[in-house]
Amino acid sequence: MRNLMITELKQVALEEQPLEICERKGLGHPDSICDAIMNEVSIELSKEYLKRFGMILHHNLDKGLLAAGETRVKFGGGEVITPMLIVYGDRATFDVGDERVPVNEIAIRSTKEWLRRNLRFVDPDIHVNYQSEIKPGAVSLKDIFERRGKFLGANDTSAAVGYAPMTKTERLILDLERYLNSPEFKRDYPESGEDVKIMGLRHGRRLHLTIAMAFVDRFIENEEDYFRKKGEVAEAIREFLADREGFDEIDFSLNVLDTRGRGVKGCYLTVLGTSAEGGDSGQVGRGNNVIGVIPLNRPISSEAAAGKNPVSHVGKIYNTLTFRIANRVMDQVNGLKEVYVWLLSDIGRPINEPKAASVQVIPEEGTKLSEVESEIRDVVEEEFQHLDQFCMDLAMGRIPIC
User: Fold this and answer.
1) In the structure, what pLDDT confidence band is assigned to residue 143 with cuts at 50, 70 and 90?
2) Are strands 336-344 and 19-25 parallel, antiparallel or unpaired?
């Protein structure tokens, strides 16, 4: 690759820095719901385009919004007063010749299927309304898809950055949220909702987690029962954290706004297990990066990957590819502490020919950049040689967008 720059970073690896802040918005958080839904729509639409026309056509569905509904929580089970509203925005291909693609129907159907699979108490036919504002795409961007070729031109001028490895803090936060939303945890603690948010603050080797978890009111008899079950959940979290290595101390707070003596007002209760039912709206791009966290110490792309098309929009392709390359470099090249990969596109330029590509590394002591540079270059070039398969894996949902 002619324009690939490989350089050494003169900085301390994040794992060794004295302060780290990282967040994870869980499965049932409104922003995470938006990301997941819009990406699911892109996957199902890509499959439909492939089935009908043998190729993925222009679409970008990364402007989704979830407007919170209204509920009345109550010990023993409350009620939904006003449904949530999901608004689909941006562009897609509706017509090819005389054939009409049911874009809106696919969007709503795939959304309902995702909600049924992931949010136990949300009935997508009752608790959610749907509003599609998807329109046909701009002529110039649609034309990119008509130019064919093995690789399409980028439909935006955009930059992305990925890194490896994850720090112990990032990995712990990701693993903890997945544990709290695992089928096993929900079986043992059905009162725990899917809306889980974790904020981590590491000072040196001491980590504090602030955890918010929506509780489902139908499983809570009264205030005393709430605090008892909250204590049981806290103990399960404590046991999970006890097995984690790499920290001198880990402590956490759970639902810090809770106040005894205030009834339902002093408890984090929901009817359906998500704050989207009545307390918090969501939007694509306000949640986790493509590997599942919000790492405040890291450089991150401003692009939302979820919902963008997987064959020409570098906001999706490069966002995920940078992390893949960074992880492969870490796995295959010895003597590195940390890797950052940057890719920049030029609108209309084939996606396999980035305008700029850069790999920045922090070597371990005793490792010289000149000793590993050719290995790094080989990894990058190999990934771009198989970029068509990578894009197809994105299209089929085989590469998760967290």
Assistant:
1) low
2) unpaired
**Mean pLDDT computed over 377-382:** 98
Q: What are φ and ψ of residue 105, in 5° steps?
A: -65, -40
Among candidates 48, 115, 73, 81, which has minimal Cα distance to 265? Answer: 73
For the record, the structure tokens of 38 come out as 């819009």
**E strand intervals along 89-156:** 91-92, 95-96, 99-100, 128-132, 135-136
Secondary structure element (H or E) that encloses residue 85, with its range: strand 84-88
Record: fold of 15-26+167-283: GMP Synthetase; Chain A, domain 3 (3.30.300)
Percent of the chain predicted with pLDDT > 90: 92
Distance CA 58, CA 48 (A): 12
Please tell me whether the overall predicted TM-score, pTM, comes out greater than 0.85 for this model. Answer: yes
Nearest to 264 by CA among 216, 192, 231: 216
Task: Encode pLDDT of 314-334 as tens digits.
Answer: 999 999 999 999 999 999 999
Ordered by start, the domain boundaries in the chain are: 15-26+167-283
Angle separating helix axes 387-395 and 369-385, nearest 10 degrees: 60
Segment 180-233, tens digit of pLDDT: 999 999 999 999 999 999 999 999 999 999 999 999 999 999 999 999 999 999
C-alpha to C-alpha distance for 310 and 305, rounded to whole angstroms: 9
CA 139 to chain centre: 30
pLDDT band at 137; cut points 50, 70, 90? confident
Pairing mode of beta strands 356-363, 269-270? unpaired
CB atoms within 10 A of CB 292: 22
382: helix, strand or coil? helix
In sequence order, the 6+-apart residues with CB closer than 8 A to the CB of 299 are 161, 163, 340
